[in-house]
Amino acid sequence: MSTQTKRIAFHTLGCKLNFSETSTISRDLTNNGFEKVKFKEVADCYVINTCSVTENADKEARKLIRQAKRKNPFSKIAVIGCYAQLKPNEIAKIDGVDVVLGANEKFQLMKYLNQINIEGPPIVVSSDINYVHKFKPSFSSEERTRAYLKVQDGCDYICSFCTIPMARGKSRSGTIKSTVAEVKKVVSCNNQEIVLTGINIGDFGKKNDESFIDLLKALDNIEKLKRIRISSIEPNLLTDDIIEFCNISKKLMPHFHIPLQSGSDKILRLMRRRYDTEIYKERIEKILKTNLEICIGVDVIVGFPGETYEDFLETYHFLNELNIAYLHVFSYSERDGTDAVNFKEKVSQSDRFKRSKMLHILSEKKQRDFYNNFINKKRPVLFEGMKNGFQVGYTDNYIKVNIQNPLNYHNQIIDVNLVENQGNYMIGVL
Fold first, then answer.
1. Three-class SS state of 156
2. What is the dihedral angle through the alpha carbons of 201, 205, 210, 211, rounded to the nearest 10 degrees?
3. Which of 43-52, 80-89, 129-138, 371-380 has the highest mean pLDDT?
4. Structural contact between residues 41 and 7, judged by C-beta atoms closer than 8 angstroms
5. Of 71-80, 236-245, 254-263, which range is least confident?
6. Which is the CATH superfamily of the domain at 138-372?
7. pLDDT for the residue numbered 60
8. How does pLDDT run across 384-410, given as a tens digit for each residue?
9. Are the beta carbons of 327 and 319 closer than 8 angstroms?
10. Cα 315 to Cα 262, 311, 355, distances in angstroms
11. Domain 7-127 top-level CATH class
12. Rounded CA gap, 391 and 408, in Å?
């Protein structure tokens, strides 16, 4: 496939890790002659970077393939990422798909686009995930004022509900030295904030005899870097050193996102998580002991097989008592190849929906209560863009802020007085 005047569009499903990888792949292609356009536009080639954490992600991928083909029946369709790794042959059977690349091959998209034969069958390349050991750094920087930097990939855990180890392989990362070099590239793109992403970033460096806390300390010394944010970290890997460093660092933002998944120890054991509620609660208390203004977000899954209503209420009350800022709520999704698929005592879809709704309401309450603590207080805000006539940005502790001001503060960090709580954001004035 000649790159001459070829228009290429990308769509990313799933986590910020996927976004960072898409961005890196797109830079490679645009550096080699492609013109990048929006996915809704007519393109010569459409690239869909897939997720397979939930059934909805799979369905969305198939829908996007059909949409792309309707926009341009003569376009080439490439499907990459987690869904492509798990079910490459299934994807290849979808009408219109030309290239399917798994975890190890997606960064070679340019090579395979040039091999497309219009008359031939789809190109399907997906290596055995057990033999995927190379770490490929990636970062997103084009669309936002904050960049998502991949510092770790894969997972050595065996949670009973999760496809990630099958889709991304064993845990691996770069070295501190190589990661610092990547961060300097990101900083040179004028990004004010870097969000460290990965599948299990607390495992950074374990095969290089390095550690995540040492990485944070190294990044803290990069002169032009303004903000560092941790995307998500397992409670059993959130050490005292990391918590304490967050309190003294001028660049590490006071914000932790810590997966819980269930507030029932019975369900945590069924999920094969590596902690219990006592450990989780102790981590939250340790964080708040160092800084009461830290924002804490939580992942939780409802409707896991075997979760009775009493188990769910245990989760609800556990979360209600925690001094946290918000929840990310997921309904359990059956995934082929996981042990949980075969667990008995399934929870009905209607019950999953009801439980999810209850936790979403709780999350709204938690967020409002957290925001109330900062009325008439100043916080530094990184402004990202305009929405509905307001300039929108986020404080260091992840409060969404809207201000009205004729000046353009895009990609600037400015102290703002927070004056009014709107529930999912705060009104600020200079």
1. coil
2. 10
3. 371-380
4. yes
5. 71-80
6. tm_1862 like domain (3.80.30.20)
7. 85
8. 988 888 999 999 999 999 999 888 899
9. yes
10. 6, 6, 10
11. alpha beta
12. 8
72-106 residues labelled b (16+ CB within 10 A) or e (exposed): beebbbbbbbbbbbbbbeebbebeebbbbbbbbbb
Q: Reply yes or no on whether the pLDDT at 21 is more than 90.
A: yes
pLDDT of amino acid 3: 46
Residue range(s) of every CATH 3.80.30.20 domain in the chain: 138-372
Run of H or E residues at 92? helix 88-92
> DSSP for 288-326?
HHH-TT-EEEEEEEE--TT--HHHHHHHHHHHHHS--SE
Give me the pLDDT at residue 4, please: 55
Q: At what angle do helices 349-372 and 309-321 cross, to 10 degrees?
A: 10
Q: Which two tokens stand for residue 423?
A: 């529930």
Rounded to a whole number, what is the distance in angstroms from the first to the last CA of the chain? 53
From-to residues of CATH 3.40.50.12160 in the chain: 7-127
What's the CATH number of domain 377-429, 2.40.50.140, 2.60.120.560, 1.20.1270.60, 3.20.20.60? 2.40.50.140
What pLDDT is attached to residue 175?
A: 96
**What percent of the chain clears pLDDT 90, i.e. is strictly above it?**
79
Q: Distance between CA 426 and CA 417 in Å, rounded?
A: 10
